[in-house]
Amino acid sequence: MSYQAVRPDRRHWRNGLWWCVAVCAGLFSSAVAAHTIRFAPEKDYPPFVSAGPAGHVQGLSVDVLEILRPRLGGELQMLPPDNLANILDAARRGEVDLISSLRPTPERAEFLAFTEPYVKVPAVLVVKQGPAAPVLADLAGRSVAVGKGYAVETFVRTHYPQIRWVAVSDDMSGFQLLMRGEVDGVVADVASISDAKRHSGVRGVQVGETLPFEYALSFAYRKELTALGSALNTALQDISPATRQALLRRWIDVDTLTYEDPLHLWLRRAALGLTFLGVLLMLVWRARKPLLKDRHPRAD
Prior knowledge:
Keywords: Membrane, Signal, Transmembrane, Transmembrane helix. The chain has helices at 3-6, 10-34, 60-68, 84-92, 151-159, 171-179, 190-199, 226-237, 241-251, 254-257, 262-295; strands spanning 36-39, 44-45, 49-51, 57-58, 75-78, 98-102, 112-114, 119-128, 143-147, 164-168, 185-189, 205-222. The protein is α/β, with parallel strands linked by helices. The strands form 3 sheets. Strands 6, 7, 8, 9, 10, 11 and 12 form a 7-stranded mixed beta sheet that branches. Strands 2-3-4 form a 3-stranded antiparallel beta sheet. β3 (49-51) and β4 (57-58) form a beta hairpin. The longest helix is centred in the C-terminal third of the chain and has 34 residues, at 262-295. It is globular, with a radius of gyration of 30 Å.
């Protein structure tokens, strides 16, 4: 029997080699994909996250994420900025791994998990400027804008069904409708209206009332990415109070951080006024007491 008769066919070796290369390449691609974290930023939710004029994504939440990035255990891939409703739809389909500036809701909890909040701001009613700002109870049957898919949308539709709610893609769209007189109010967080008045030319509006709803904003991630959630929470806990305050003051003005409901402010001033009046009356009474004694001497 000759050597030629038992030599293996070289084609089988080549096919086997290419098969091994293909398998290894597939495993490598899967490993790379598993360590790529797809972050979906909102395009118009300042001061928390928005796309600037050149498309550069910026905001308070983006700065926080930059601090967390080295500890996430993977490469961060920035997806094109979009509105929240589209981002949530993509996350439900498994096309997004990480979202910022979100408040947990039962609907979102079906496919997302949430970190601890990293910023808290109240929701407010924004109305046209005037001598007497209305509250939501005054706007029954009238149009008020609210962000579509925002956590506050479910809250206001449930608790204020008498309002004609107009869903808008973002807060800025609502403010524009208000300035044009197409709606009678906008429900948004107080930081967003502050930023819009400072940087986006929103004029002639004011805060009408604070709603019993707080934006406790967190990072959201796909529920199955438990390691990512653990890394996010651990890194958030390690941000010092001084760093948190510096980030807040970079993106949110002092007036917003110390915002007080006009009704609460009036009540506080009234209480201070009554206290001052009480002290004044007590001082007057003490000053008059010796005079009364002199006017009515004792007959001992």
